[in-house]
Amino acid sequence: MGHPVPTAPNFLSHTSPEYLNMNEEELEEYYQRIFESLHPLQQRFLRSHAADVISSSSRSSRRPPSLANDPVYDLPFLSLVFSLLRLLTHALFSALCNPLAPITDFTNFFYSLACYSAIYLILYLYQAFLLFCNLCGFQKYIVSISQRFFDGYGTMTWGDHTMFENKAPVISAARSFLSSRLDDDSAETHVGPIEQEFCVEVAQSILLMSAILYERDQESVERAFEGAGDVRLNLLRSEEQMLKAAADWNCQFTSIADFQTAKGPFVGAFFDLEARPNPFMVIVFKGTSFQDISEWIVDTTFNLEACADQLGAGCAHQGFYSSLFPSASAREKPSPYLRIIETIRSVAKHVHDEAGIPMNLFVGGHSLGAAIATIFYARLLESPEDIGPHTVLRDGYCYGTPRGGDSSMASRVEYNLAKPVNFSRSLWRVSNRSASVNVGDIVAHLPPGLADQRSCRSAIRAGSSFIHMPPSEHPLTLSRAEIDRSIDSDRSDVGLD
After folding, report:
1. pLDDT tens by residue, 50-62
2. Which residues have a Cβ under 8 Å from the Cβ of 250 and sit 6 or more positions away?
3. I want to staple 338 with a disulfide (CB 3.0 to 4.6 A). Which of 109, 204, 334, 497 is the partner?
4. What is the C-alpha separation between 196 and 242, in angstroms, rounded?
């Protein structure tokens, strides 16, 4: 490549005496050294993200409806009230447009009414619990426990705080698939069923990449949005765990954009410029933090929004869709979607200019992040020219995906996946059924909907029920031991210890 490979940054453990004894000036020098060790592309993307944050912060006094210091999101109980009022307004408008809905759409009407009532009651009780914890000062105890027993990792990984240790072999085992060339099936005659290849190693790798996003340091993000100190270095500080993981996995990481609020989900990318035959990039979306009520509100915003302008047909979950494609009135900078496309095109152009080869693109996310990732993947299927001529769209791996659209939108996604040019591509929807084979992940059952089965869609009025995308879940049952055995066998195949 044209750029020299930067020296790997020397990351310090946040529990080490060397790090703990640093003053603010020394910390700034430490993060400046890390910044200088990054690849020039990473430096450029970080500056661009910082510029977006500064732009958002400069408008905070005018209380914009999107990023940074939205008063509704600053008051969680009030945000729940506003969310409930929006739902009631939507329900009233729907009732005026279709007053016979309780009769003509009986099942969906009363099913939704019962489910939404129960979910909002649970949300209010959950927010009361979080408020009680804050009043009792539990947050400082959580930080102390995290530093003492869980190596500084957040509560989302307390169940297995060693999950990121020694995972370079997992990424290495997936590298051959991530960097492989996509077979062109568009001109072939298929006489039998078309088989998509679910790669366990890739699924594990993208799950790790999605999980590490939860380790973003929220305090540093908030300082960046408040304009305290060097915004660029505050963002870098917030991403230290991701950068460290990427270095261990022999790839690079960059954050790209924030959604909805400074405290909410965001999108980043892991990429490997040296992989062959094709370099690869994985766009990953952060999911819902269990302690952040604003993200749960996005999850449970049950209004559908017309999305034909971006996705070709139907309606999408308003919270997920507006995160990626904010309305013109809420947009104070390029939309998150455009920022992602700029990042993809920039890296792909760099790869093509230096090596004359294309770059593979994978997509992933967990929970709320999986829903946004699904909408993002649906847009790329609808408008493949967005990513440019030097990028090859590959598979999407989404974990614990909530329902994100109506039957018309889901059918459009199926239509695009059924095109011959997409025969080798799959949007995999992976659910955790380790606790319950029948129920699985409860988040994957939200919002409530009845249109997952194609045979049921004709009986349900368009825009009245949520559905998964893709509607069918690929059946795959693997125990953790079976997955570990597959990784062990692949280690011997690729010469890993």
Report:
1. 988 887 766 554 4
2. 168, 171, 172, 272
3. 334
4. 30
